[in-house]
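Minimal example, chain plus zinc ion.
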Amino acid sequence: MNNIEHVGIAVKSLDKSNKIFAALLGTSHYKTEEVKSENVRTSFFKSGQNKIELLESTEPEGPIAKFIEKKGEGIHHIAFAVDDIVSEISRLKEEGFIILNEIPKKGADNKLVAFLHPKSTNGVLIELCQEIAN
Ligand code: ZN
């Protein structure tokens, strides 16, 4: 596992939160992207080496909407960059972690992603992401 690739934050309104994070970080988001399979709209910010992903639900029943309903807005996941997502998934599975999707799927920001269930990681949803080679 490599560096933290980004921190994902669940928000009610991308428009409102884009303004808050632009003011906070002193820079605007550099992209907005809808991930249909996850029912989310995302925007990405860069702060130095680090990235922040804001996530807004596009569906009242989507995973982000449900998260906000339960816990309110806030940190939703931490994403780690990996070189080989398939081998990381099998390594972590062997370690006893619960993998939510054992077959990596296409996420935002040109990445293959997989998630670990928070039950197996002290309540933190962990995302693995591997850059898709162009
Ligand atoms: Zn993410």
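The two ends are 22 Å apart (CA to CA). The chain has a mean pLDDT of 95.
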